[in-house]
Design brief:
The protein is of the alpha+beta class. Helix content is 30%, strand content 15%. The chain is built from 5 helices and 5 strands. The strands form 2 sheets. Strands 1-4-5 form a 3-stranded antiparallel sheet, with helices on one face. A hairpin with a 4-residue loop joins strand 4 and strand 5. It is elongated. The two termini are 22 Å apart.
């Protein structure tokens, strides 16, 4: 299988240090017990499941997400397709760590053009969070926690932007 678009997304959720294998392999179905092992409190982040080959690699914080990313690559999708699919799976199987209610960040490298672009899908401020609003509330700067610090989630919009690009 050859990836049509040479794109690499580097993000903190999808990095790994495991040794490289020589080919993409057929995924082994994950048992419920193995999948649940990644949701306990003893989960060690250095043990992220990954699959690597000569034409692609995936790594995620849950085996079902890694399996999904591999399948996307095997069926002709590119790295961005795999990342978006894995993020969607992680939103279901590890919602406390990754979800549609958060933000997304990434660095993309297009091998054919050697172009590097960044994605900052930080959610925007709410429509009433204007300088005038904070001045009227006698707040000099946006607090780091609490109701006045909340932003509109940007993850899904970031997935759309990455896919369209």
């Amino acid at each position: 299988m050859k990836i049509r678009t040479s794109i690499i997304l580097i993000a903190f959720l999808f990095t790994s240090c495991a040794p490289q294998t020589t080919e993409l392999v057929e995924p082994t179905p994950v048992s419920a017990a193995a999948a649940n092992a990644f949701t306990n409190t003893n989960y060690a982040p250095q043990n992220r499941p990954d699959v690597r080959g000569l034409t692609g690699a995936v790594s995620a914080g849950h085996p079902l997400a890694a399996q999904t990313g591999l399948r996307i690559l095997q069926e002709g999708g590119n790295a961005t397709d795999a990342i978006i699919a894995m993020a969607g799976v992680l939103a279901v199987v590890r919602p406390h760590m990754n979800g549609i209610g958060g933000d997304a960040f990434g660095i993309f490298y297009a091998g054919d053009s050697r172009e590097i672009t960044a994605l900052n899908a930080t959610g925007r401020a709410g429509s009433v969070a204007t300088p005038e609003f904070f001045a009227a509330a006698e707040v000099e700067r946006v607090p780091g926690s609490g109701a006045l610090s909340v932003s509109v989630p940007g993850a899904v919009a970031g997935w759309v932007d990455a896919h369209e690009r």
